[in-house]
Specification:
The structure holds two protein chains of two kinds. By secondary structure, chain A is mostly helical. Chain A is built from two helices and two strands. Chain A has a domain of 30 residues. Chain A is extended. About 41% of the residues of chain A have low confidence. In chain B, strands 12, 13, 14, 15, 18 and 19 form a six-stranded mixed β-sheet that branches. A five-stranded mixed β-sheet of chain B has the order 3-2-1-7-9. Chain B has a four-stranded antiparallel β-sheet with strand order 4-6-5-8, covered by helices on one side. Chain B is 30% helix and 26% strand. About 3% of the residues of chain B have low confidence. Classes of the chains: A mainly alpha, B alpha+beta. Strand 1 of chain A pairs antiparallel with strand 11 of chain B, so a sheet runs across the interface. Chain B: This is Plasmid stability protein StbA. Chain B: Pfam families: MreB-like_C, StbA_N. Chain B: It comes from Nitrosococcus oceani C-27.
């Protein structure tokens, strides 16, 4: 994989599998010109997450796998308002990322059942 | 052409919230002038017509399962809700009225929330929520907030020993602008394992057009703020269509009065049954629809222009679903929301679950 030219991969997603159907649904909601970039980020994020899992299993078995830094444009929280991960907007990705070191992981959010993740959106309504 | 059917949108009508009955339930409730829609955290969406009248039903139901009219008492007055010829809901005070209160209680009962304590978010039309300068109408908001917290007791017939109907109590109630609720639904995306904010949607300039029963609401959101110059409400909606059809029917058939349910059925089916005989009224429905669509189109152009600076124009509300073919080509960048009638209720639920603070103050 030393080539500097872009490589294309082809993946078939099965709409009978809920998570794959969700990926397709999300993809189709995006404007066409952003779809490839979003897919690229999705693949890289997943790969990075896999690297984290491998590293934590090797070095920090007790470290919570649920608190991970990733490159995406979203913020993700659990259904029950317990934060899973704070995810940050990706910068341009020049090539396949290396597995990040343990020290690059962010501090996990404090677990607070009463915390609601998007309270800042109340401002939209105004005073 | 059906804005919403009188039936639930799911077949899990009596499915209970599989929680501890003592646990508070979060509810998004869009108590519109034509239909009252409920969104629940387990994904169920429930809709009932906003149809009630003062007074007892005057019907004895031999079998509980056949019961289609339900009675509720609030402030010493009994109301009948369900399959009745409802009193008009198109008046300014409706959101804080007893009529609204009993219809909301009925919707909560139909959603299987009998006896539960609730945290609730509802809405007001944009023009009822904001003044022209963007300031909130605090008095109207407070009136609505307080109104729904007044007690409504289900009246259970003495003969009916099997039916358990306990009031659903509202412990917390927040009010937000109706079309803006649909924006929250749009930007907060729930997945199987969590919830995300869609950053692309969050930052894009977008207009929400909410075609409802009495009003059509407009909200433009840009940089996470409401653009008040392009937002507001038009006092036109699907109930105007029904009123117009009622007038045309009265004129053609020389009738003095017709029940609200029969008109509703005529609009939905294009057929009117009089003296045991069906009459085709599709031309009247079509004419009334054309008049409404023209009025909505003119106002939409006035508010949004050609929409060139907007990334998207999102149509929501029961009217958007019912008029989908008539509004299909208004803008190149338009979309009709999935289950458009429930977009506000879903957004209200998401606002309650992920945005507003209901933990520290139950008001």
């Amino acid at each position: 994989m030393a080539s500097t030219t872009p490589q294309q991969i082809s993946v078939s997603l099965d709409t009978r599998i809920p998570l794959e159907a969700l990926v397709l649904q999300r993809l189709h909601r995006l404007p066409k010109d952003r779809q490839n970039d979003w897919l690229r980020q999705l693949v890289l994020t997943a790969f990075q997450s896999e690297c984290h899992v491998i590293k934590s299993e090797q070095r920090q078995p007790a470290f919570s796998n649920s608190m991970r830094k990733s490159n995406t444009t979203s913020y993700m929280y659990s259904r029950h308002s317990t934060p899973i991960a704070k995810l940050q907007r990706a910068e341009a990705v020049a090539g396949p990322p290396n597995c990040p070191n343990r020290t690059e992981l962010p501090n996990p959010f404090p677990v607070n059942k009463a915390h609601k993740p998007f309270t800042h959106l109340r401002r939209v309504i105004g005073e | 052409m059906t804005e919403l059917t009188d039936e639930k949108t799911t077949d899990q009508r009596q499915a209970s919230i599989a929680d501890d009955p003592m646990q508070v339930v979060q509810v998004g409730l869009d108590d519109g002038y034509a239909y009252t829609k409920v969104a629940l955290p387990d994904g169920r969406l429930v809709s009932v017509p906003s149809r009630a009248r003062m007074g007892a039903a005057g019907v004895t139901w031999i079998r509980d399962v056949e019961q289609r009219i339900f009675e509720y008492e609030t402030a010493g007055t009994v109301y009948s809700v369900g399959a009745v010829d409802g009193e008009p809901t198109q008046f300014d005070e409706y959101p804080g009225s007893a009529l609204n209160r009993v219809i909301v209680q009925h919707a909560l009962q139909e959603a299987g929330l009998s006896g539960r304590s609730l945290h609730l978010v509802t809405g007001l039309p944009v023009a009822a929520f904001y003044r022209g300068d963007g300031q909130q109408r605090r008095q109207a908001i407070q009136t609505k907030r307080d109104g729904l917290k007044l007690t409504v007791e289900p009246v259970v017939a003495k003969k009916s020993s099997t039916r358990q109907a306990l009031k659903a109590s509202i412990a917390f109630h927040e009010v937000i602008p109706e079309a803006l609720a649909a924006w929250y639904d749009f930007v907060i995306v729930t997945l199987d394992d969590g919830v995300t904010l869609d950053a692309d949607r969050l930052n894009a300039p977008i207009a929400i057009v909410d075609i409802g029963g009495r009003t059509t609401d407009y909200v433009v959101v840009q940089d996470q703020g409401v653009v008040h110059g392009s937002s507001g409400s038009l006092n036109r909606g699907m109930l105007d269509l029904k009123l117009r059809v009622a007038n045309l029917i009265q004129e053609r058939f020389d009738l003095h009065e017709l029940g609200e349910q029969i008109i509703s059925r005529a609009v939905d089916t294009n057929r009117l049954r009089l003296h045991g005989k069906d009459h085709d009224v599709s031309d009247m429905v079509m004419n009334a629809k054309r008049e409404l669509v023209e009025r909505l189109y003119a106002e939409t152009r006035r508010k949004l222009g050609l929409g060139v600076e907007l990334d998207r124009i999102l149509f929501v509300g029961g009217g958007s679903a019912a008029l989908s073919s008539d509004i299909a080509d208004w803008f190149p960048n338009q979309t009709i929301a999935d289950h458009a009638a429930f977009a506000n209720a879903r957004g209200m639920l998401k606002y309650l679950q992920f945005v507003c603070d209901d933990a520290s103050k139950e008001r």
